Each structure stands twice: as C-alpha cells, then as structure tokens.
C-alpha cells in the first residue's frame, strides 16, 4: 500500500497533460461579469428522448446529457484528461497495475436516503458485472475480477490483468453509482422518476413520456466533481428538460424565448444565435467519442487489396465535402480518435486523402482496368464495388448525405462504385455476428482511447467474428495499449495503432463530431463535460438577472 | 325466431369485422416471421445485451412449433397482452395505454375542427359565384395537398415564434392543443370540404330544393336543414378513411410539436426497432379502422331509410 502510493501519485501528475484545445472551451465572454446567484429555473430543449434513463443500461450518447444531472461517478475526468476526485476522494494503483484502492467520501447520501459506503459501491460494480443483470456497461468491467469492501469507506478493486482504460471506465457515467436499494427493487429503472436514485446534484422528480423530464435541486449535495466551478448544492431550484426532436422547432423555441438553452443546432440555424444580442452559441470539444469513420471489413474482397482501400481513402476530397455539408461547424478527421483526445495521433494530419491521381494509379496497378457501360472500373468482368451498410437508427445529422458526397466523387473521379444502403439494426447485428458487413460507418461512445480502438478496430471490434483473418499486428498494438501501465508507452502504442489503421486504410475517418449549445445570454455557467464529450449537467448553471 | 332485418345486417357486419381483425392479427404474425433475421433479434430491437435472446425465446415460446406459437399469439392479443418491450423494458400495453390519450385528444380535436371548417366552407360557397367557388377550391386544394409537417412548421413560425400566442410544445394546457389540432385538421378539412361542396351542389339541383324554396324557406335554412343532410352521406363514407389519416398525421404532428402520444411512441419504436411496440400500434390502428368503419356502416343503416328496406 505505502509503496503503491508514490507511484500512483506520480502517475496522476503524469496524467495532467498540458491542456489541449478542449480546455479552451468555456461559456463565452458573458461569464466573467457577475457573481453566480442561486435560485431560478431553466428549460433545456434537447434533441433526444432517452430510451432508457438507467446509466448502466443506456447506450445512447444523447441520453447521458439528461442522466448526468442525477448520477455521479466514482472518479471525475477533467479537461485535458486529468482524473479528479468525485465520490472517491483518492485512489492508489499497485505497481503491477492490478489493484486499485479507492477511498470514498464519508458524507454522501443517495436520493432515497441510503448512505453511500464501500458496500454500496461493491454492490453496484458486482451488479453491473453480473451478466444476468444484462447491463450494457458490463463491457467496461471486463477486466475487473473482484471487488472488496476493505473498510466502511475503502474499496479494493482487483483486476485480472493490467487495464490502462480502467480509470476512464470508473469515470464513465455508464458506471454511475445508483442506490443498491433501487438496483435491488427488480425494476429496470429505465423509465426514470424518483425510483432511479443516484447521488447527483438534481433529483429526478418526474418523467412525462414524449414531453419532458422535471429535475429539482438536491439541497444536500456537497460532493461536486473535481472539475466543477463551485461546491455545495446546484444554483438552480429546478430544471425542465424538454424533448424537441425537430431542429427548426428547437431553434424557434429558443429565439422566441420559450426555452432557455438548446442543444443540437443545425449549421444553417447557428447564425440565429452566434454573435447575436441576447444569445450565446458555444461549440463543444471532440475528444472523447470517436470521429465519424468508415470502418472497412478488409477480410472481404475487393477490400482485401490494400490498394483498393487506399484508393477509397484518397479518391474523394473529404475536407471539402465536410465543409459543404456542415458549413464549417465540424472539423475533418485524420484519425478515428477525436482530435482533442490526449491520445490523438496528430502526426497523421495531412498524410492522406484527396489524391485522385494516385488513387487511379493504385487501381490500375491492382488490375481494375476495365470499364463497364456505366463507367465503373471492372476486373475479370466484375465491377469495382463495395457496400456501405448504414443502420437506420444511427443515421443522423446529414451523415448519409456526406457519404453520398463521397460516393459521387469516387464514382466521378475513380469509377469506384461505393454503394450506400440504409439497413436495419437487426440486419447489422447479424452481419456483425457473422463478420459479413463490408463498410460500417460509426462514431463510438466516449471511452478511453485504447478501449475505443479495441471496440472498433481491435480484436473485440466490428471484425471480431473474422478476427483470425484480420490484421494481427494492429490487434497486438491495441492490446499493448490497453495493458500499458506507463502513460508514455500507452501513447506510443495508441499512436502506432492509429497510424497502422490509417496507412493500411482499414478506416477512412470523415469528421470529428461535436455538440453545439445555444442559449439566452442570461444563462451562465454552461460548459462541456470531458468524459461525456457533450454538454455538462446543469450543476454550475445559474440565471443572471437581466 | 325471426331476426329483424336491421339487426341481421348489423350482426353480419360485426361478424365480418371480427374476421378482418383476426386477419390483421394473422398478417402481423406472418410479417414478423417473414422478416429476415432471427425472431429473437428482431424482437429485441437495438439494445442487445447478454441473456436477452434466451429470455425472449422463453417468453415467446420460440422453440415451439409455428402453429403453437400462432395460437399463443392470437390468444395473447385477444387477452390484451402485447408482451414486453425489450428496448423500454416495460409491458407494451402499459406504454401504449399511457400514451393513447394525448393522441385521442389531438385526433378528436382535429376531427371536430375539420368537420366544422369543412361544413362552414361548403355551406357558404356551394353553388355561389365562380370567384367564391374558385377561391374556396384553391384554398381546399392547398390544404388537402400540403404536408402536415410543413403546415405545422408554418403555424409555429407565425403563431408561436413570432406572435407568441401559443406555446411551442407539450400537452399541459388547452393552448398547447390549438396549433397541433389546426395543423392536423387543415388537410382533412380541405378534402372533406371538396367532397361536401360537390355533394351540396348536386343536392341543390334536386327537385325537393325547388319545393322547399317554393314553401318560402330562406336560403340559409334550406342549406343547413335540408341540403347539408343529404350531402353529408358521401362525407360519412369518407369518415373511416379520414380517421386513419388523422392517426397517421398525428405521428408527424406530435413530432413537430414535441407532444407526447402514440405518434411519438411509434416513431421512437420504429427508430429503435422496438418491434413489440410497433406490432401493438399496427394492430391497434387496424382495430380502430375496423371499429370506425363498422360503426359508420351501422350508422348508415340507421340514417339511410333505403338501406333498411332491402
């Protein structure tokens, strides 16, 4: 224990990377003016109504914007990727990277009156880990072998192997701590309400399906995360989250003053609020979730030929397409890891893309020299074609339009037939299970970079069904990154994995998604949460008197 | 025992309705089994987690013969048990039951509004000068062919965002019902008014109108008391079809206005591939259609003396 402490301290300070661009994101110039005032209430118009409000079950990125208001995590992740105290005040990691000792705050109570102690944390982690309980978050605790309550407020977590992604997992909302009493109730807690008892700064007062969620201040709250701007209870008395799925309706509701804050602003609506009197417009970082990326199944011809993949990667001017579809509100991506992620490999920038001449040459070399009646390249009578199967539930903010743009350019410039087909979730599940998908476009939920690589292009990734035919060197790099106990080693392996994936054109990153917030200028303290990569909860938000 | 001919007609109509209901349940069952992929994956929706497949196989008895599954399915639906939504982790009947009322409010308000608008427009313009009829026809055609979605956005822009007379969304007050009901009513009203006016114009040329006129009745009374009643029959025929239109339109209206209701539930269920909920909504829509058309047929028998004599 004592031997472990200095090492962990060293590691924690090593984790305090220089602040990246992500840290520069703040609530705009209006913030500096006045002192925060408690009281008041706001209405927040959001795009997505959560399918399930239980953080341990939800897999919807947009659900966490709502859930974070009533659920806390053991560890907080601050700007630049530093890990900070939250429900756990401190932690140490053994030299072999397998034993985590956490010290909990002694004064935390759940919304249902239960006390947070070591037993409650053990109950939560065991509950998530038990596959019988069918929690989506169980994938985050795969390496967790045993949880022991070694004292009333001391928890020891023993891993089966070193896992460099584990602190990130503990900071994830998906391992948010819920009242054991609530978990034991047998209710799946998906429909929210007071039964879903967390420890967060707001209580979940009520849920009206199809309409809104009502939150009320937790006046006992004294355990704000290390990155918060203040301590003690939240400023707002109440908050209403209103579900407004239509872009134009959300914008109109804000411009007419019927809601105070909206999330998800269409590029064409941004001008309504950006630099307009009475409003503010803020763009979030793109660090925690992956970039929107075309993942190529390189075990199925013609994508088995690296020249075909590279031609697909370089044939289109993706930067120009992204600019024309998103009007400069998002950035083109160079890797599937987000540009503000501390493990993003910056050296990839400008190394690929938009070189149709080279792409044509590669295809000629690969033998795709014939042309059919429609002008597509052929080889031995076969047309050069690969299908992008895009599951309908994930099609959003013009991403299909962007792919159509790539499709048109590849056809015109290369004679490459990139097909786009909107599929169903069930069909995708089947293709995934058999490894028969050809190209899968996605962004992945916020997680540690090494875990993201593993879940997307690693051994546990989309190609897992045909992993024996896949790229073992890439898998090895990703596995080493996950097991690295040293931050520099981890950086090296994640960078090498990104480089290999892009150079071999296993992936074609398209753009780095981000969140946009627009609000009345009287709403202060709006920010983004690093771990979620989305708007923070409303804890630091307050209303200035006009 | 001799059954009254009217009663016999009604009984026969009810019997056919039952056959249609049974047919729709069967169609739903066959459609489910005809979908590509394993049934348990289809029923699970987008949130697959360990253990779920086994739970679904047990609950739906998917390891039994197709016929046994079918009998079980029909029996459960007949008992009002629509199973469990694996995506929302709630009984489907509870989800649909809690969301049906906002939709019923919206659809009935829109239905009544459409009837009033169509009645007023037709009564005022039928058989009038060319300009009035042309103008009314143009407005009706615009309303009937404009998408509910677009009308809704326009109404919101004018009355909510600019004039701020009505709130943008929700179902907490009568004010919040006004714009969605108008948006949903306009296309229906446009269509109904066209049919109604044509029928009124035909009725106005009937000899009985000349007779009533000869009795010295005023034009307004003639139209309201005599002509409208005759002209209403074709409009009633359209009623069953229009109820379907209102339900379908409600899906879109609820999304635009951010209202709770079956539409929102259906849309979310489709998007998250929550097949048990989609199945329930499809069956519910079929039942409502059958119930409405059965009811209208019965009303027909009652209000049209010619049908009683056959």
From TrEMBL, chain A:
InterPro entries: Peptide/Ni-bd, SBP_5, SBP_5_dom. GO terms for cellular component: ATP-binding cassette (ABC) transporter complex; outer membrane-bounded periplasmic space. It comes from the Bacteria. Its main location: periplasm. GO terms for molecular function: peptide transmembrane transporter activity. Keywords: Signal, Transport. GO terms for biological process: peptide transport. It is found in: Periplasm. Belongs to the bacterial solute-binding protein 5 family. This is Peptide ABC transporter substrate-binding protein. The lineage of its organism: Bacteria, Pseudomonadati, Pseudomonadota, Alphaproteobacteria, Hyphomicrobiales.
């Amino acid at each position: 224990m004592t031997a472990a402490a200095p090492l962990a301290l060293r590691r924690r300070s090593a984790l305090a990377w220089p602040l990246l661009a992500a840290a520069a994101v703040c609530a705009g110039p209006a913030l500096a003016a006045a002192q925060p005032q408690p009281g008041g209430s706001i209405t927040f118009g959001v795009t997505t109504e959560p399918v399930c409000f239980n953080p341990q079950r939800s897999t919807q990125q947009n659900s966490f914007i709502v859930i974070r208001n009533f659920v806390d995590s053991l560890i907080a992740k601050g700007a630049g990727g530093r890990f900070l105290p939250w429900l756990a005040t401190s932690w140490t990691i053994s030299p072999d990277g397998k034993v985590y000792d956490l010290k909990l705050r002694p004064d935390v109570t759940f919304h249902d009156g239960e006390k947070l102690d070591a037993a409650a944390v053990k109950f939560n982690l065991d509950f998530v880990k038990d596959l019988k309980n069918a929690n989506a978050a169980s994938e985050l605790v795969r390496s967790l072998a045993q949880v022991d309550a070694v004292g009333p407020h001391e928890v020891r977590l023993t891993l089966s192997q070193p896992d460099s992604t584990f602190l990130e997992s503990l900071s994830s909302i998906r391992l948010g701590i819920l009242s054991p009493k609530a978990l034991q109730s047998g209710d799946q807690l998906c429909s929210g309400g007071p039964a879903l008892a967390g420890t967060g700064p707001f209580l979940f007062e009520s849920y009206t399906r199809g309409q809104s969620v009502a939150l009320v201040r937790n006046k006992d709250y004294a355990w704000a995360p290390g990155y918060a701007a203040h301590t003690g209870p939240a400023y707002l008395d109440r908050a209403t989250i209103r579900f407004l799925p239509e872009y134009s309706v959300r914008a109109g509701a804000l411009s007419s003053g019927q809601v105070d804050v909206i999330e998800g602003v269409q590029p064409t609506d941004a001008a309504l609020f950006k630099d307009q009197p009475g409003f503010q417009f803020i763009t979030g970082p793109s660090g925690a979730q992956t970039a929107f990326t075309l993942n190529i199944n390189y075990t199925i011809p013609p994508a088995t030929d690296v020249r075909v993949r590279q031609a697909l990667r370089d044939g289109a001017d993706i930067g120009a397409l992204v600019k024309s579809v998103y009007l400069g509100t998002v950035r083109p991506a160079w890797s599937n890891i987000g540009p503000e992620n501390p493990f993003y490999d910056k050296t990839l920038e400008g190394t690929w893309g938009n070189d149709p001449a080279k792409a044509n040459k590669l295809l000629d070399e690969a033998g795709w020299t014939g042309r059919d009646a429609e002008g597509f390249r052929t080889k031995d009578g076969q047309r050069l074609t690969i299908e992008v199967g895009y599951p309908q539930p994930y099609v959003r903010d013009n991403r299909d339009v962007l792919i159509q743009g790539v499709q048109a350019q590849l056809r015109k410039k290369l004679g490459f037939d990139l097909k786009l087909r909107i599929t169903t979730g069930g069909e995708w599940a089947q293709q995934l299970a058999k490894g028969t998908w050809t190209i899968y476009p996605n962004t992945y939920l916020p997680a540690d970079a090494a875990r993201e690589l593993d879940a997307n292009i690693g051994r546990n990734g989309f190609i897992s069904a045909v992993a024996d035919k896949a790229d073992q060197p890439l898998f090895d790099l990703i596995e080493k990154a996950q097991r690295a106990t040293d931050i520099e080693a981890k950086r090296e392996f994640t960078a090498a994995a990104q480089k290999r994936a892009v150079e071999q054109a296993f992936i074609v990153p398209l753009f780095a998604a981000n969140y946009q917030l627009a609000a009345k200028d009287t709403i202060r303290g709006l920010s983004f949460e690093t771990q979620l990569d989305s708007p923070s909860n409303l804890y630091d938000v307050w209303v200035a008197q006009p | 025992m001799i059954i009254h001919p009217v009663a016999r007609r009604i009984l026969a109509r009810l019997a056919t309705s039952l056959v249609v209901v049974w047919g729709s349940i069967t169609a739903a069952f066959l459609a489910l089994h005809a979908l590509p992929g394993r049934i348990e994956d289809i029923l699970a929706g987008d949130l697959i987690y360990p253990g779920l497949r086994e739970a679904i196989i047990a609950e739906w008895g998917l390891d039994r013969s197709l016929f046994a599954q079918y009998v079980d399915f029909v029996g459960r639906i007949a008992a009002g048990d629509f199973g469990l939504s694996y995506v929302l982790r709630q009984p489907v009947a509870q989800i649909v039951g809690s969301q049906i009322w906002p939709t019923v409010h919206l659809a009935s308000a829109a239905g009544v509004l459409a009837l009033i608008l169509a009645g007023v427009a037709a009564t005022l313009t039928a058989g009038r000068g060319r300009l009035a009829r042309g103008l009314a026809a143009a407005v009706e055609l615009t309303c009937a062919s404009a998408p509910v979605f677009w009308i809704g956005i326009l109404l919101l822009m004018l009355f909510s965002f600019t004039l701020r007379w009505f709130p943008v969304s929700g179902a907490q007050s009568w004010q919040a019902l006004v714009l969605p009901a108008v948006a949903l009513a306009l296309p229906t009203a446009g269509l109904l008014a066209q049919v109604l006016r044509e029928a009124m114009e035909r009725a106005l040329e009937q000899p009985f109108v000349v007779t009533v006129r000869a009795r010295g009745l005023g034009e307004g009374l003639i139209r309201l008391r005599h002509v409208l009643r005759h002209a209403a029959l074709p409009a009633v025929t359209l009623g069953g079809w229009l109820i379907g239109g209102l339900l379908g339109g409600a899906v879109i209206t609820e999304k635009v206005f951010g209202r709770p209701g079956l539409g929102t539930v259906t849309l979310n269920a489709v998007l998250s591939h929550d097949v048990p909920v989609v199945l329930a909504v499809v069956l519910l829509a079929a039942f409502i259609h059958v119930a409405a058309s059965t009811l209208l047929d019965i009303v027909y028998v009652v209000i049209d003396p010619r049908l009683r004599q056959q």
